[in-house]
Amino acid sequence: MDRTRFTRLTYVVFGLALLVSNALSLRSSVEVLPVVAVVLSFLVVVAAITGLLWPDATPLGVSVDIGAQPTWVLALLWIGSALLLVGTALQL
């Protein structure tokens, strides 16, 4: 797996962790801010999956390109994903 695909996979995992965390906060109260957070998290997941599966895709004429990131960025995203998932598990 090359670095660009690994970066896109990292964004998919982070987006899913963010989506689960925001969806859990939506469970407690339905207000505007949690709904916006869920929608934006969903869009992060869609963009990351689109970039992972179809790297040359241009939906609506816009390039969804997530290029290779430095190691420290990927490490922070993986740590953030782990923390979001642990926090979600503790809230359940």
SSE layout and pairings?
Blueprint: H1 3-28, H2 32-53, H3 71-91
The residue ranges in which pLDDT falls below 50 over 5 or more consecutive positions are: none
What is the overall number of helices?
3
Q: How far is the first residue's CA from the last residue's CA?
A: 34 Å
Number of strands: 0
Tell me about the largest β-sheet. Answer: none
Structure description:
By secondary structure, the protein is mostly helical. Helices cover 75% and strands 0% of the residues. It contains three helices and no strands. Helix 1 (3-28) runs antiparallel to helix 2 (32-53). The longest helix is centred in the N-terminal third of the chain and has 26 residues, at 3-28. It is flat, with a radius of gyration of 14 Å. The model has no long low-confidence stretch (mean pLDDT 87).
Structural features:
mainly alpha; 75% helix; 92 residues
Can I get a quick summary?
The chain has 92 residues and is an all-alpha fold.
